[in-house]
Amino acid sequence: MLELLIGLAEAILMVPVVMAIILGLIYGLGEVFNVISKFGHRNEQPAKERR
What we know:
With 51 residues, the chain is an all-alpha fold. 76% of the residues lie in helices and 0% in strands. It has one helix and no strands. It is a single-pass membrane protein. InterPro entries: AcrZ (IPR019702), MEP_Accessory_AcrZ (IPR053730). It is found in: Cell membrane.
């Protein structure tokens, strides 16, 4: 019975940890692709006109 409770507690603790890791990876990949996109489109932006 004690082993079942330990396993349940471990699962309850691991779910938010794994979700945080997955969300962090998604955010990190988004930032990486943002940097790549800015680097690729850096020279394509038209110059702003001053009036």
